[in-house]
Amino acid sequence: MRYLKKMRGHTQGAPRVGSAEIIWSGIGSLLGIAAVGLIHFKLLGSNGYMMIIGSFGASAVLIYGAIRSPLAQPRNFIGGHVLSALVGITIFKLLSGYPWLAASAAVSLAIMVMHLTKTLHPPGGATALIAVIGGDAVHRLGYFYVLMPTALGASVMLVIALIVNNIPEGRRYPEFWW
Q1: Taking a C-beta distance cutoff of 8 angstroms, is the pair 53, 150 a contact?
Q2: Which residue range(s) make up the domain with 107?
Q3: Please, how many CA atoms are within 13 Å of residue 37, restricted to the half-sphere of its CB?
Q4: Is residue 110 a part of any domain in this protein?
Q5: Would you call 129 exposed, middle or buried from its count of C-beta atoms within 10 A (0-12, 13-18, 19+)?
Q6: CA 24, 28, 33: angle at the middle one, nearest 5?
Q7: Residue 147 included in any domain
Q8: Are 117 and 83 in contact (CB under 8 A)?
Q9: What would the pLDDT profile of 15-43 be if each residue is shown by its tens digit?
Q10: pLDDT tens digit string along 135-149?
Q11: How far is CA 53 from the centre of its chain?
Q12: What is the SS3 assignment for 112-134?
């Protein structure tokens, strides 16, 4: 019973944000995902390369919608994705014959590496998982997946975040770099 009581919660839910915050979060995420999507679909798609991965959707929530979160800061955003991609590709190469084990090991090890390097970014877990379950398109990239789409796509999104999040008077991003 004591175990279940731990799950009650002791605080109220998160406060509502104002309309301006909602609008700027929407503008930032629209522009950030549009930028990597445009590069992906118009410039790279026909060459077999990619620029956009599913985990960027979750990152957009953080770097445009929760800009004060420690998990949304540049070190966490870029470092979390890059290190997780590196872990994911390495685990896939080692355990590709056991996809269920490779998937779970990639996510778990990515979390541990992000903790150790102070780069915890929750979408990084998805970046590691995509390296394992992303199919032939991702697997053909090998370690290039770390650079593109991961590092380059995240860098494009970061530039958009730095611009858009600092336009309104009441928003500031980042809170810290390192």
Answers
A1: yes
A2: 20-164
A3: 10
A4: yes
A5: buried
A6: 150
A7: yes
A8: yes
A9: 899 999 999 999 999 999 999 999 988 88
A10: 998 999 999 999 999
A11: 9
A12: HHHHHCCCCCCHHHHHHHHHHHC
